[in-house]
Amino acid sequence: MNRVVVTGLGCITPIGKTVDEFSTALFAGATGIGPLRAFPEAPSGDPLNPNLRFSRYAEVKDFDPAPFLSSGQIVATDRSAQFAILAARQAVEHSGFLQSHTPEAIAIITGCSTGGRNSEEHETGRLYNQNARVHPLTVIRTMSSAGASYIATENNITGPTLNISTACSSGTHAIGLAFQMVRSGMVTSAIAGGHEAPLTLGFLRAWDSMRVVSPTQCRPFSADRDGMTLGEGSATLILETLESARARNATIYAEIVGFGMSADAHHITQPKAEGAAEAMRRAVKDAGASLDEVDYINAHGTGTQVNDTVEAAAIHQVFGERAAHIPVTSTKALHGHSIGATGAIEALATILALSEGKLPANAGVTAVDPALDLDVILDSYRVSTPKLALTNSLAFGGLNAVLAIRPFIA
Question: In this predicted structure, what is the pLDDT of residue 89?
Answer without folding.
Answer: 98
